[in-house]
Amino acid sequence: MARSTSSNTWLREHVNDQYVQMAKKDGYRARAAYKLLEINEKDKLIRPGTVLADLGSAPGSWSQVAARIVGPQGKVFALDILPMNPIADVDFIQGDFREDEVLAEFVDLLDGRALDLVISDMAPNISGMSAMDQARSFLLCELALEFARDHLKPGGCFLVKVFQGSDFQPYLQSMRDLFDEVVTRKPKASRDRSSEIYLLGKGRR
Ligand SMILES: C[S@@+](CC[C@H](N)C(=O)[O-])C[C@H]1O[C@@H](n2cnc3c(N)ncnc32)[C@H](O)[C@@H]1O
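^ Those are the sequences you sent over. The predicted structure of the assembly is below.
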């Protein structure tokens, strides 16, 4: 079947994208790696010894970045609704984060370890930013924040991808209630036309 014009445009942009080329060269599974690397360069969230959870981890580039930095004293726990090929020193479970049993299984995996950091790049399959997409996306953000509230050490940090929309301000407020400081980040690898932005909560109270 012939490809639509928009999927052809996407394919052409993707192939020519400098971050796609860099990811291939550096051995990362997705261009998203460079978003986390840029944020980490600025905010020093991941260091040797950091224990963290990566929510919405597949195909795995954020987990790859994290595992390379945390080293043997740290730990990366990862979860996605999709399968993810194994990454050395990353403990992964596959499941839907909205389901209580999946959350319980993930919490078991942590084995009582409190986290220094939660990173969430979760995003539902977007059909075109309709009100329903917005609602589904914010549900994942809410659940990730709840998880951070329950499992971060005092002083811990939370990085979450959000899409700017009507839920943004109340969500920002709930982050401000939990963290000493909340900042926004729009790394260069995040496409300008995307309404995605990252919120970073620093210093869980
Ligand atoms: C943008 S991708 C993440 C890319 C990843 N950070 C990386 O660097 O490879 C968003 C991910 O969120 C996951 N996701 C969406 N809804 C989910 C859910 N309900 N539970 C768990 N993961 C979910 C998707 O399957 C997808 O893999």
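The mean pLDDT is 94. Residues 29-30, 32-33, 56-62, 79-82, 96-98, 121-124, 140 surround S-adenosylmethionine (CB under 6 Å).

Shout if you want it in another format.
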